[in-house]
Amino acid sequence: MQVLPLLHRAATTEAAMWRSMYLWARRKPVTPAPGDQAFSYLGMVTPILGVFIGLSVVEIPILDLIIRKVVPWEPARWIMLAISVWGLLWMIGLFASLKINPHIVGPAGIRVRMGAAHDLTVAWTDVDTVSKAYRTLPSSKSVQIEPHGDRTVLNLPTGSQTAVDIKLRHPVSYPLPKGPSEPADELRIYVDDPDGFVRACRQATGAEHATMRHAQEG
After folding, report:
1. Buried b / exposed e across 76-108, counting CB within 10 Å, b at 16+?
2. pTM higher than 0.90 for the full model?
3. Residues 78-93: pLDDT tens digits?
4. Cys-Cys with 200: which of 92, 105, 170, 195 at CB 3.0–4.6 Å?
5. Greatest pairwise CA separation for the chain in angstroms
6. In whole angstroms, how far apart are CA 150 and each of 164, 188, 205?
7. Which residues pair with 156 in a beta bridge?
């Protein structure tokens, strides 16, 4: 019973990678809605992905040459070539998905993304404080839930790093690829520009409070 959901997630991820690479190749810029500000989280992973992509480009012709000289079966060469090219394109697609899906701060709240894998919105009514705090996590998993005193923290790191703490007014469960998270009191995410991110959150919440006061007075 667990195989079908796994296959579905794999197929969804694969389709998202190809779509992201197509959009990135067309040089379609990120165009936030009015009032939205986009924030990248690529700084930690760009050098790593760049190394892997560069090594793959060099490896493909070398591996092809070795197989041609060592393996007498011609189809083996084409099979390995197809796998190698697919791996290279997959890594480019991963980079593209991270590039075209930034975090968003806007009137609706904080939209937290990680490529095509994670996409959740933290409403301003749920937010208590947003602050800058660099942390290094012991694991590189893209989703990590940990207890912190009597609170539950949902970590969505990039390269085992987080840079922004989003403390909530009350526990909230968020949609994740494997299903809803357990209720969390705090989210921790990575942003390349945490100072700008925190400043944008303060500006957005100030505008939100002004709108609410205006509605109440009306």
Report:
1. ebeebeeebeeebebbbbbbbbbbbbbbbbbeb
2. no
3. 888 899 998 898 888 8
4. 105
5. 82
6. 20, 16, 27
7. 189
